[in-house]
Design brief:
Helices cover 35% and strands 17% of the residues. It is an alpha+beta fold. It folds into 2 domains: 17-46; 87-382, LCP protein (Aminopeptidase, 3-Layer(aba) Sandwich), CATH 3.40.630. Strands 9-4-1-2-3-10 form a 6-stranded mixed sheet, sandwiched between helices. Helix 4 (178-186) runs antiparallel to helix 5 and helix 4 runs antiparallel to helix 7 (273-283). The chain is globular and about 90 Å long. The protein starts with a helix and ends in a 13-residue tail after the last strand. The model is unreliable at 5-15, 37-41 and 62-71 (pLDDT under 50).
């Protein structure tokens, strides 16, 4: 039986290919391993899970001011076992450059385990149980400034917010709101459906805001104008578009933040982690580290959080009419607020009860206050 020379050559040739194929495979695997190692190093450098306070750990710093010296806050607050392993609450606010008041205040509850989040905005004119004699001293947006800002102001604001929701936020993030425009610029702009004409001029601040309604591309400068819009010029043909109220601004701002969030939570933006880290470092003060903040971001992007999973709401409230001492102020609508807290904001298994809250109410004539605790820090506010 004679051998087939062609067959032998084919077998020899095939046999000689094996080492090269193995070498190529090993080279590819080595590159993958190197890349994986780089990713691990970068991930551990840029992303770190924040520790949650233990069940018996106080969440307000010892000795920090709480509300006013004349009144003890309602205690205890709800705590203990969490609804899921990674359920965080964060107070987000930003002082106004001119007044120092925190006209933007939001409580974020993020259930990382189940990839759902709620962002509740507090109206700036929300009345609180304060011993201050003026109306301005009884508004939530002045707490940070009245306690001197900085760490004391933060702790006072966290304590005051705990009176409204029944638990102390785990962390805080104090934002220079110019970061929104810078973030929009970093992600290459944002598309947003402007609900009505924005027509506002303020020469003193060199601020000129003019947008047609409709779905349109906004760069960073445009984004800041949308965030800073308050109402239309009184002489404008569009003066009646948008009610110009704090609530109306909150609603448009929430819709805009949804658009920014939706377009930021894209895998392509993971490559911009260095640029975003620099922005956060320059424009954010927090008891969370930059690595902690990026852990939240990585969990949102890689965990599949969609904008539909983030519920933007305004604190349920009732408003005072255009008469009385407290005209045009707002105060918590107790039953809907308590329901929202326990359904979406409270991270703990135990439910918040009304006994753990200190909620102000205003009389029908807008002149006197009362508290759900039965005690006013300023007794004269109930006797006008």
């Amino acid at each position: 039986m004679t051998s087939n020379p062609r067959r032998g050559k084919r077998e020899i040739s095939r046999g000689n290919d094996h080492p090269w194929r193995r070498a190529i495979i090993l080279m590819v695997l080595a590159v993958i391993m190197v890349l994986a190692a780089v990713v691990v190093v970068l991930y551990s450098r840029w992303v770190q899970r924040p520790e949650l306070p233990s069940a018996d750990q106080p969440t307000l710093e010892s000795g920090a001011p709480v509300q006013d010296d004349s009144m003890d806050p309602v205690q205890p607050k709800v705590g203990g076992e969490r609804k899921s392993q990674d359920f965080y609450t964060i107070l987000v606010f930003g002082p106004d450059e001119t007044s120092g008041d925190t006209d933007v205040m939001m409580l974020v509850s993020y259930d990382v385990t189940n990839q759902s989040a709620t962002v509740m905005s507090f109206p700036r004119d929300t009345l609180i149980n304060s011993s201050g004699q003026s109306v301005a001293a009884k508004m939530l947006n002045g707490v940070y400034k009245r306690h001197g800002g900085g760490e004391d102001g933060v702790q006072a604001l966290k304590a005051e917010v705990s009176e409204l929701v029944g638990f102390v936020p785990d962390y805080y993030v104090e934002i220079d709101w110019s970061i929104i425009g810078k973030m929009v610029e970093a992600i290459g702009g944002v598309w947003f459906d402007i609900p009505y004409h924005l027509d506002y001029d303020d020469p003193y601040q060199d601020l000129y805001i003019h947008f047609e309604p409709g779905y349109q591309y906004l760069n960073g400068e445009d984004a800041m104008k949308v965030m800073r819009w308050r109402h239309n010029n009184t002489w404008s043909e569009y003066a009646d578009e948008g009610d110009g109220s704090d609530i109306g601004r909150i609603e448009m701002r929430n819709d805009f933040l949804k658009a920014v969030l939706s377009q930021t939570l894209q895998l392509k933006n993971i490559t911009k982690i260095g640029e975003l880290a620099e922005l956060f470092g320059e424009n954010v003060k927090s008891d969370l580290t930059i690595e902690n903040l990026f852990w939240f971001g990585s969990q949102a992007v890689l965990g599949g959080l969609r904008v539909e999973d983030v519920n933007f709401v305004t604190m349920p409230f009732r408003s005072v009419g255009n008469s009385g001492v407290y005209y045009y102020r707002v105060y918590p609508d107790q039953a809907p607020l308590l329901e929202l807290i326990n359904q979406s904001l409270n991270p703990f298994v135990d439910e918040v009860t009304l006994d753990e809250l200190d909620l102000i109410s205003v009389s029908a004539d807008g002149n006197t206050l009362s508290s759900s605790t039965g005690v006013l820090a300023d007794p004269t506010a109930g006797r006008r």
